[in-house]
Amino acid sequence: MKNFNYRNVIKYQSIRIKILNLLDWLPDKWMLKLQYALQTSRFLNLKSPQRFTEKIQCYKLYYRNPLLPKLVDKFEVKGWVSDKIGSHYIIPTIGCWADASDINFNQLPLPVILKTTNGSHSNIILKNKSDIEKVEQIKKTLNDYLKKRSPKLGREWAYYGGDFTPKIIAEPLLVNEENGGFSGLTDYKFYCFNGEIAFVQVLFDRDNEVKEQNYTLDWVRLNHFNTNYTNYTIEKPKCLAEMINISENLAAEFPFVRVDLYEVNQKVYFGEMTFYPASGYMNWQPDSFDIELGKAFRLPKKF
Asked: What is the pLDDT of residues 47-90, one digit of tens each?
């Protein structure tokens, strides 16, 4: 079947969210089968999953570790991570609010990043005073991220099955020096299975169109990707050994988790822990990598 992405048909995220909100009544299993088919052009095998993407759907349905709601919360996770590896790896929190109307934008130290704790692609970066001229629009956008996204959009249990209350947090904007002609923060994402790292996904050039490359722990580039950029090679991070140790430590007790880290001016910072990357709907190239990763993902015999 030819890959079909409904995002290309329904281009506006706000419309997609409204449609998914209207389908809240569907049982999780049915909804996941529908979304999986639309996103990957394959039928979802839940009885005997082989692929990484299939096992992520099982993870959503059946893995009920009570820690997960805390660890997917971008604010609450900081305390847990600090206890595990030390507070010096944590990006400071400038403020935390339940509603954007409570934020005093004139008191925010610039540059700053505002983000909601309940998902991805919900960040607003303010670099200078001109960025906060449209305060009311910024407040509306942040509150829309908080309140108009049903926690069941992706049927990701960690966001709706426990005591999870989304909030807005502010953090100082980490800025790395330009590297090889590219600016912006480089994001190192360690795919971990029972504490063992399978590979490192690297996202870079965030100031333009985000690009991706994947590497082994020996920093050999892999030809497995969701998106590709072939004319540039990411240098091995100076703190790679430290990042490997951190990722293995944080991931040790979970069948799967992706640990996201940053290296800024030769210092490592914790980003987040992700249990359902891309909600399990990535189309790996080549497709065989999905099956290869699935072999590393050992689901618990009993959930």
From this structure: 999 999 999 999 999 999 999 999 999 999 999 999 999 999 99
| Stated pTM of the model | 0.90
- The winner for highest mean pLDDT among 124-128, 184-188, 230-234 is 124-128
Q: Is the peptide bond before 286 cis (omega within 30 degrees of 0)?
A: yes
Q: pLDDT confidence of 182, banded at 50, 70, 90?
A: very low
Q: Report the alpha-carbon distance of residue 162 to residue 234 in Å, rounded.
A: 39
For 92, residues 6+ apart whose C-beta sits below 8 A from its C-beta are 171, 172
**118: nearest Cα among 102, 139, 142, 92:** 142
Q: Taking the CA of residue 222 as centre, how many other CA atoms within 13 Å lie in the half-sphere pointing to its CB?
A: 20
Parallel, antiparallel or unpaired: strands 211-215 and 196-204: antiparallel
The position carrying tokens 């509306």 is: 140
Closest CA to 196 of 259, 112, 106: 259
Q: Cα(first)–Cα(last) distance of the chain, in Å?
A: 32
